[in-house]
Amino acid sequence: MNFARRNASTSRHPLRWSMTSLVVGLTLAMSTQSVLAMSAKVPTSSSSVVQTLEKVTAVHSQMNDAADERLYPRLMTINEDWNIQRPQQVVTGQVLDKQGQPAANAVVLLGNAAWGFASTTTNADGFYQFSDVPQGTYRVLARYAFNQRSAGTSLDMGESTLTVESGRLNQSNVTLSMVGSSLFGVITNATNRLCMLALVQMMDGSNQVIWEGFSNLNGMFDVELPAGHYKMKVFVGHATRVQSVSLLPSTKTSVCVVVPMTAMMGTVRSSSGTAVLNAWVYAFDKFGNVVARTLTDIHGQYLINGLVPGEYSVKVMKGNEFTSKGNIEVKTHVTTTVNLALP
């Protein structure tokens, strides 16, 4: 407006000049064609000037509204998409056992088909928390960890459904109830000899190992798992036995696993004919590789299971004494007897 005042003394129409400058100033945000058109029709009367100002203001407002419509709907869409995609909610809850006591160190899973699954564990008071959870409906599952069985805890499982919403407390409490099963097994060979320290693996439907352990000195093992269908794999030496097992809820299932015999057994005695205890017996393949070893028992007896059919040699060592024997043929499902005597 300084420009208008500076030229007012030389102009015959100060008001018209000032208002014309105002019109031009208001139309700077418009397109070039609109500015030229409006400048060519600058009125000379005060009433016309007011009407023109109103028109200019209306046009300018329409242009801003059009720009806003082009810009802000997109920004609103971005914000809405961001609010949908950005996890913002917190899910909390408590897991109780079937006696109503807090379940410490229980595994809690939260998820659905769209979001996937996340897991956490409860604290000493049975509480758990998930952060950054999108809105939606979720399954909440809780179970004891498999390794808690060693502490005498039965395998329990609980489930609930939760709808996560914004602006509210998203809480799901889960009570564990007994749905687990127990599997008891005995591992023997074809001659009914118990197989100690045999490796046992339990696999789910996708062939993932979910539990493994060893048979005890009596060839026995037991494990607690959720009800369902499993594949059990037993390793005795180099021999392997695979069979299917179905477990019912809250039921103890017994199995007897017979490992096929392709073995070598015998007795080790001293030069005087007495049984030798804790003598090392090694089995070598035809290339000279050690494929198995074992110790003799109190009767001087040994057993090497799970040998691949073929030609072997045997070496026995006790302190500084040793002896060996070669050209031993081992056949499928046959126990080959090889007795040895230390010098």
Automatic annotation (TrEMBL):
Listed Pfam families: CarboxypepD_reg
Keywords: Carboxypeptidase, Hydrolase, Protease, Signal
Entry keyword annotation includes Thylakoid: no
Molecular function (Gene Ontology), one example: carboxypeptidase activity
UniProt KW Secreted keyword: no
Transmembrane segments: none
Protein name, UniProt field: Carboxypeptidase regulatory-like domain-containing protein
Organism: Alicyclobacillus mengziensis
